[in-house]
Amino acid sequence: MAGQTEQNTRKGENLLQTPEQKLFFLSQQFSPVHSRKLGFTRRQRDRRDLKEDENPEAKARRHKEMELKPLYKELLYTIAHKMGKPASAEVFTDSQLHQYLKEAFTMTDEEHNGLMEKVQNTEPPIYCLMVTVKEAKEILGKDVSGFSDPYCLLMVLEEEEEKKSSRAKAKPSKYVVKVQICDKFLINYGERARGKKRHFAKVSLTQKLEEIKTNLNSLRRMIKEAKKEKGTDDFLGNIVLRLKDLHCTEDNWYKLEPRTETYPNRGQCHLFLQFIHKARDGTLSAGRNAYTNYCGILQQFVQAYISKQQSSAPWKGALCGEAQTLLELYATQNDLSPFLQDLAKWVAYSKLYQSLEVDSSVLFHQLTSIEYHWHQQELPYQQKQELGDSLHGFLQYGLCLVSKYRDIFPPTPSATPKLHTLLRILVQICKTQAFQKLNPANFELHNEVHDAIVTGTEEWFTIKKGLHQPMTKDLTEIGSALSRLIAEVQEDIKHNKDVWNRVFVSAVQVDVFTVVYQKFDSLLAKEVKATLSIMEDQMELNLSKSLFPVYLSLQAIHKDKAFLQKRGLLQLTNFHEDFRDALPYWLNQAFSTTQDRVVRAVQVDQLQPLQVGAVPIKHSSSAVDLVACIQPICHLWEQLSWPDPEEAFMLMVKLTEDVCKIVVNYCHLLKERVRVLSENSDHSIAINMLCVVVNDLEHLRSVLTRLPSQLNWEGLRIRTQSVIGQSQFENTLHSQLQQAKSILCKEIRSALDTLGKQVDHESRALVLLTPLWQNSVKILYQISTQHSQQEGLMVFCQRLLYTLQCLEQCFHADGNGLPQKALHSDEYKNLKAHLTHHSLTSHQLIEKFFKRKISEQVNYQGEKYGAVTLLTSYRRSDQRLHIEVLNAVSLLPMDSNGLSDPFVRLCLEPNHVFPEIEPRCTQYKSCDLNPLFDEAFDFLVSLDQCQTPGACLVVTVLDHDTLRPDDFEGEAFLALEDVPGVSEQEGEEVDSQMDSAPEQIRLPLMHPKPNEDSILKLLESRRGEREAQAFVKKRRQREKQSQEAAQQ
User: Is the Cα torsion angle 735, 739, 742, 744 positive or negative in sign?
Assistant: First the structure.
């Protein structure tokens, strides 16, 4: 195919694309200097003259006639004369391939039929099978030396129709070729071979001898005669292949078959088979060569595939099955080498990359393939030129994208990987042997990328400067425009430092941050100088406001110099000198703004203590606002960060003086505010206001104490020690601060004197003791709730309860302190209840638990889980508690048959009150939801036990199970003090011989709610008490069996 390609011309090559799709980067995007660096000295190819005045419809028609239809006819011709099976697993019929062609080339049925008729009238090609015998292994040694001198005999045989009497014999055709190993040859079997029933290729092979490694230098191979008479050569094996079973391209190892079974294992032979055409009709594509047609077909298929895709994801090189089949058939029939196919794909895909989203792996794969084939096969001259031009064009296109990386690859997670991929592709191109061979000039990608970044940065700055050009000649507008421009530059520098720098350094080892920073440094210095020169001697307040953002942005940019890899003299080093005229306006603006905020804060202050959460604040809102108002002045000092040490000291003196003025003025405003509010207020309210004022002034004094650390006086002293002496520093700044503190102390003493004169004995107790008592109660509550799960909490709470009682007596002072009403506030009641609850012993808690259960039983409504009926009485004569279990009704079904086997368990609780009383159980009733028990039980218990707080009878109904634990039906609690015979009041005369009559009671069954009992949680926290833990475990197990848990 190499010879065929070299013989054809490139006529019509440039017609593969529409005029709108062609990109001439080589002549338009870069100067001759870049062309020289790239080694581009070849003359640009002439392209067909295009009529610029044609309308789009005419261009489309001419494009279809001159470019698409010739390719369409070539593909129809390929389908009509195809041989062999495609490599893809999916097989397509001719009609399917025709339908795909019509869609891909947008041909109508009429156009298709007309072109099909033309193809059918053309001359058919000569069908050829190209066979390459590559190598053999494990063949037999036929000579006395143990080796063989193998060669191949190739024949194409035709099998005739079977005869009735004997089997058909294969007749050899006239094409018999004798070749050596590693030869390539063609077998031309013409048009007649296509109509036969069966086709075979028979390779009778005397294989290539295996190499023998031996340490005997004297061993020589015996040399046989180079040529022997036919019929005297030894048979080594043969391979029979059916032509209709072959793919259009085969590259496989085949096993050598013997004639007899004497030596069945005769080795293998590696063959490469390919069906090709010779003498194809050259009128179909107007004389264009096969490689050019392949490029056009590939490009058309890719465009058709991408246009049909709905996804916005990058194209990853995939094509539909029909397109792959047609490309394979066309390349095989025209004997296009894999090198030429990969070259065509690179050319097509690199052009698509310039207009569509193409995945980088597609280009990387083609570059790798071209690099591999470059060492294996020599390209024709014209294809070399095309490869060189393509690599040139893509490099220049890539450098053009690099220069505009800000717009094309924004700093987003989805765009930066694309920039990294582009740079890697450029690096890969420069590393390929093809590029280095075809471009002898010295080309340094690092320098080219550096120049592209510099050029792109300058262009970007020029564009942004034009966008932010002021609409008028007003100086304030000019300052605002400069501020907006520098803000964009600052943002761009940040993106280069944080995002793009990693991409460029990892891909091409270019520190883009340093390159961009140095370029912006010179551009901004020139722009700032030019703008501020216009404003010279015209500074005023509004103009200074517009310049403050400029100063801040320049300062932030100047601080980024710490990240530069290469340090040098920067033009923005002394940028602050240009803003000396605006500095006084900035300081006055900060002072006046802060002063106004303080006045407004005092005007809305009601002089009431603030309450933030559970922690009270002693001062009022204006004191908090004053601290917030002073903070911007401290922030201004940090923002300015004035570089000159002597000027920075003067700035600090001015700022400290302003803060002291604001504090003194606040004192006067606060005194006036308390006078206004107390005129029509109650006497006690006025006293409270005076207390708040004292607290405000004290808070302000503490703020002034922290001022040196907030303004970092120590850092300033270190900076200025070479120009400002220690004594001057102390006498200036510290004296200012001390003077302001003296004024505050004087005002505090004055307020305290006034407060002392107005507060009498009675109001003093209420005013001073009430906050102290409330604070004490809150502190005790916080302490009691901090470590609720610690061991020894009971003793701890008992001590706190004792402390609370002592404090109550102290604050009441036998009626001389706070009254009982003031002492027993809601917070006090909650604290006392909390401490009392946590001070109880475990036995007391268990008794309290059963009291709560008894109360819950009394208030329980309905019979959701059924009910149980009892007959109860207590005989004091023999201290016997008599319980009769009569029946149970409406029980829940617990078994799979929809019934239950219920029984009743009776237990006296708490266990520490009845330690020797064992639970009693009734007999279980099989398959009954309304069982009748009628069983009686007697418990020997004393009257004192029955009258113990929390003493009760726990009635539990269970479902009997044999192989698993009994199911829980429900439980009920009966207070023993409600049983007849127990509930008689003390002092009543009770006849020991007359016992109380039994009383019938119906108890609804209940299910406990899980994790809702605070008593169980408290008992659970007492890890060291076994009885408490056993009780909790028993109740928790009952909660797991509860159906209330399943409902939640």
Answer: negative
Task: Give the long-range contacts of residues 666-671, CB within 8 A, separation 24 or more.
Answer: 666/598, 666/602, 666/622, 666/626, 666/700, 667/697, 667/700, 667/743, 667/744, 667/747, 669/598, 669/599, 669/602, 670/602, 670/605, 670/622, 670/696, 670/697, 671/747
Q: Which residue, among 321, 304, 302, has the nearest Cα to 91 in the 3D structure?
A: 321
Fold of 857-983+996-1013: Immunoglobulin-like (2.60.40)
Give the span between the Cα atoms of 257 and 236, in whole angstroms: 9
Q: How far apart are CA 895 and CA 888, in angstroms?
A: 17
Q: How sure is the predictor about 69, in pLDDT bands with cuts at 50, 70 and 90? A: confident
Q: Is the dihedral of CA 399, 403, 408, 414 positive or negative?
A: positive
| Rounded Cα distance, 392 and 38, in Å | 7
What six digits make up the tokens of 1024? 């060291």
**Quick one: tokens of 494?**
């940040």
SS3 assignment, position 186: strand
Residue with tokens 């490099």: 395
Three-state secondary structure readout of 565-586: CCCCCCCCCCHHHHHCCCHHHH
367-389: pLDDT as tens digits: 888 888 888 778 888 888 888 88
Distance between start and end Cα atoms, the chain: 81
3-state secondary structure string across 451-498: HHHHHHHHHHHHHHHHHCCCCCCCHHHHHHHHHHHHHHHHHHHHHHHH
Task: Give CA angle at 691 (686, 693), nearest 5°.
Answer: 95
DSSP category for residue 813: G
Size of the chain, expressed as the number of residues it contains: 1048
CA separation, residue 677 to residues 241, 523, 609, 694, 1021 (Å): 114, 60, 15, 15, 53
Within 10 A of 667 (CB to CB), how many other CB atoms are there? 21
pTM of the model: 0.57
Which CATH class name applies to 126-159+173-190+197-209+232-279? mainly beta
> pLDDT tens digit string along 456-505?
999 999 999 888 888 888 888 888 888 889 899 999 999 999 999 999 99
Parse the chain into domains and list their residue ranges. Answer: 60-125+281-334, 126-159+173-190+197-209+232-279, 447-573, 585-759, 763-839, 857-983+996-1013
Taking alpha carbons only, the member of 967, 982, 997 closest to residue 905 is 967
Find residue 159's DSSP bridge partners: 170
